[in-house]
Amino acid sequence: MRAVANVEALKHALRHYGPPKYHHSDRGSQYGYKEYIKLLRDNKVAISMGQSAQDNAYAERVHRTIKEEYLYYWKPQSLKQLQQCTAKAVKHYNQHRIHNSLGRSPFNFAQYWAKLNQSQRPEITIYDDQFLT
Questions:
Q1: CA 45/CA 18 separation, integer angstroms
Q2: 87: pLDDT strictly greater than 50
Q3: What integer pLDDT is reported at residue 133 of this predicted model?
């Protein structure tokens, strides 16, 4: 992607909507472009960026699950209802919903994992960027 186009889009957004408190992005090169970063900093925007571009995909997947499996069903009608429903969804997602890859909820998995000593814990690779340049 051409970073110059992103800088122009950011300038347009700042002119029309003002600066946001936070700007979150993946690690795309256009978001690390020095002029883009300078524009955010000059407007006192806090920059949030994942450790790798794949971090964003994981977060988006969780957001989609919460929207599709909870919020679309509950249909909150106000910001307060949305906040309450989101908190309820996140609690259920973490404490009760069985995750296929874990065979249990994240809460139960964390409890199980904490009981294992270091030699019993399997090594897993979530993301391997050894082939990236």
A1: 10
A2: yes
A3: 45
From CA 102, how far away is CA 113, in angstroms rounded?
A: 11
Q: Is 24 helix (H, G, I), strand (E, B) or coil?
A: strand
Q: Other CB atoms closer than 10 Å to residue 6's CB: what's the count? A: 19
| Nearest C-alpha neighbor of 43 from the set 63, 68, 17 | 17
Distance, CA of 55 to CA of 59 (rounded, Å) = 6
Q: What span, in angstroms and rounded, lies between the C-alpha atoms of 101 and 112?
A: 14
Per-residue pLDDT tens over the stretch 44-75: 999 988 777 677 777 788 889 999 999 999 99
DSSP 3-state assignment of 22? strand
Instruction: Tell whether pTM > 0.70.
Output: no
**N- to C-terminal Cα separation, the chain:** 17
Q: Is 48 helix (H, G, I), strand (E, B) or coil?
A: strand
CB 31 within 8 A of CB 25: yes
Q: How far apart are CA 86 and CA 70, in angstroms?
A: 8
97 pLDDT higher than 70:
yes
Task: Give me the residue spans of the domains in the chain.
Answer: 3-49, 55-120
